[in-house]
Amino acid sequence: MAESVYKIIELVGTSTDSWEKAANAAVAQAALSLRDLRVAEISELDLQIEDGQVRAYRAKVKVSFKYEGGQ
Fold this sequence. Notes:
The chain is α+β, with helices and mostly antiparallel strands and about 70 residues long.
């Protein structure tokens, strides 16, 4: 097997419904401009709170993709 190199970027997805939808939003957006996505790791989950109520779920996602140079 040939050697490969992968680049990792960190994104924050948000959703008013759930952490799962927030993570999906981050990956879906990354897929629009990056090719060959490989792995996504949830590194942090948090909530946006306003007036004592949860307003948004936020998922910090590390996304890896095959590195082809110049990116």
